[in-house]
Specification:
about 550 residues; alpha/beta; Rossmann fold; GMP Synthetase, Chain A, domain 3; 13-stranded mixed β-sheet; 5-stranded parallel β-sheet; 16 helices; 28 strands
């Protein structure tokens, strides 16, 4: 596979800039309701003005673009990055758009991270400012001595009572003092949209999307015939015709799915409803929002979200007749859960999408209204291909063995600051840049694919991507551990759950190991169970035998 082509310019696609598209739509439908969050309602015009206030504040600090795309490698960013360390709320979406309008880029931070993880990602992103909910102020204070200098700390009041950190600014006061005027900047389709992965590449990596490609692929900027919308007037015309369709993205904005659902809705001229309870999944709250706000589309993350929601449906009596689509991303819904949902809501259509921060949603399984299903097959876009084992050629339908899922149009540039992983995950083949996110697949026909999961180094648990080496390192911090292999076993609710196979050199209990590991990684990454062995299973070459470890995990 050649790596000599200029991947930045492959395909000749330009596209549009999200800042300009959003402002143009807001100019046309400014009085239409765009967002409902708790007791606050915002029109498209108000969201646009508030995001521009934040953008003007950032530019006033010099947080913007400093080097244009043409002068950079694919793994480099010429823009400043702003860390967004918050729960869902209007502030998160305003900041995302504000960064875009300042020609900066927001960096989504997992709010479950412990201080050690937070420090890593803030340094990796080279964050120049942090916007955070007040409840996270103690963790921010802990990491500040260990990261680069910040041009601003912006604290969002969340009712927790945490005082402002020294030198920090209140978010609403920042907006009130800034101008809502449009910014006179040289916007470009090459401006970046930054999405941090949850660990499918190892430690979290920042995926660098050109906004032109980001609008066309993850945000669904295409016409019914599949052609890309390349004219702002066409976006405006579509938005004007919108009938006010309402989406509720239940996943946290710290992951890509929630962001994409909300921003895609606004580029169509539609509305977004957010749950009231944002710190955790609250099925009663979600269904109350669906009923009261007449939500049409609910975005979830697999059975981990859907099973508790089904239980709540059976506990309560609610009018959910407005709900027409449930979309799940990252983890597919099980057949039994799909059947149960459609039994309760016969007019519902369920859309399973498989994708990643790197690829966008190029794979779907649709269970239609009245329970008519496409079955277990996943339909793929025409831009999807399957590489052979060595990634030196493309496989044809009906091939032997497994290949690598890949997408070859409107894909990201690379991983922030990582030339090696960029070359691995975004290879050049026959003059085109592809993304190969790591899924093993079998191509059944030109438009149908069979998924066999990721490499054994990544575990998808309830939609969260967990890198096994990170968990292994956390467990190995305990002095009693001689060695550890982290693997997974099937889970009815989570899809998969983390299991640690451990060899000890000194006495230690599961409680001891968990207490040490949670100092280094977020709680959702911690092993759900341990298998203690005298010696770790190893292959003939001496390397850890992950297949045997998985077998051991399945036996407990």
């Amino acid at each position: 596979m050649s790596d000599t082509a200029d991947a930045t310019k492959l395909g000749g696609f330009a596209g549009l800039n999200l800042a300009q598209v959003h402002d143009a739509i807001a100019d046309a439908i400014g009085d239409r309701e765009a967002l409902v969050f708790r007791d606050r309602r915002f029109t498209h015009g108000e969201v646009a003005a508030r995001s521009r206030r934040f953008a003007n504040f950032l530019v006033g600090l010099g947080i913007t673009t400093h080097t244009e795309r043409k002068n950079l490698e694919n793994w480099q960013s010429g823009q400043d990055h702003v860390a967004l360390y918050m729960y869902n709320g209007n502030e998160y979406l305003e900041c995302l758009l504000g960064c875009v309008k300042a020609r900066a880029a927001g960096a989504n931070i997992n709010f479950r991270y412990v201080a050690e993880e937070l420090r890593y990602v803030l340094n990796d992103a080279n964050a120049k400012a942090i916007v955070y909910h007040a409840c996270f102020a103690p963790v921010v204070a802990e990491v500040l001595p260990h990261i680069g200098p910040q041009k601003a700390l912006i604290q969002v009041d969340d009712g927790s009572g945490e005082p402002l950190l020294p030198g920090a600014l209140d978010y609403e006061e920042v907006l009130a003092a800034a101008s809502p005027d449009k910014l006179d900047l040289n916007y470009s389709p090459d401006d970046l949209y930054l999405l941090y992965t949850g660990g499918t590449t190892g430690m979290p990596k920042g995926v660098l999307w050109r906004q032109g490609d980001f609008l066309a692929s993850p945000l669904g900027g295409k016409r019914a015939d599949g052609s890309v919308i390349e004219n702002i007037d066409d976006y405006v015309a579509i938005a004007i015709k919108s009938k006010g369709y309402r989406s509720l993205p239940a996943p946290p904005f710290m992951h890509g799915t929630g962001q994409l659902i909300a921003l895609a809705a606004w580029t169509r001229g539609d509305g977004v409803v957010l749950q009231n309870v944002v710190e955790r999944l609250d099925p009663a709250d979600l269904l109350e929002r669906v009923e009261t706000e007449r939500v049409n589309m609910l975005a979830l993350v697999g059975d981990a979200f859907a099973r508790p929601i089904l239980e709540e449906m059976d506990r309560s009596s609610r009018d959910l007749s407005s709900l027409r689509i449930i979309l799940t991303s990252g983890v597919i819904l099980s057949a039994t859960v799909k059947a149960a949902l459609i039994e309760r809501l016969p007019k519902l259509t369920i859309i399973d999408t498989l994708g990643s921060s790197e690829s966008g949603p190029h794979v779907q399984n649709i269970t239609g209204a009245q329970g008519k299903s496409e079955g277990a097959e996943f339909r793929i876009s025409k831009d999807t291909v399957v590489f052979n084992k060595d990634k030196t050629g493309l496989l044809e339908p009906g091939h032997e063995g497994l290949g690598w899922f890949a997408v070859g149009k409107n894909v990201p540039l690379g991983y922030l600051g990582d030339a090696e992983k960029t070359a691995q995950a975004f290879p050049i083949f026959n003059g085109r840049r592809y993304v190969v996110p790591g899924d093993r697949v079998r191509l059944i026909s030109d438009r149908v694919i069979e998924f066999h999961g990721r490499d054994n180094m990544t575990i998808n648990s309830g939609g969260e991507k967990i890198f096994v080496e990170e968990v292994e390192k956390a467990v190995q911090h305990h002095p009693g551990v001689a060695g550890v292999i982290v693997t997974s076993r099937p889970s009815e609710r989570w899809g998969n759950e983390v299991i640690a196979v451990v060899a000890l050199k000194n006495a230690a209990t599961e409680t001891d190991l968990l207490a040490e590991a949670e100092k280094h990684i977020a709680r959702y990454k911690l092993p759900k169970a341990f298998v203690f062995v005298d010696e770790l299973p190893r292959a003939a070459n001496g390397k850890p035998d992950y297949q045997q470890a998985k077998t051991l995990a399945s036996e407990i």
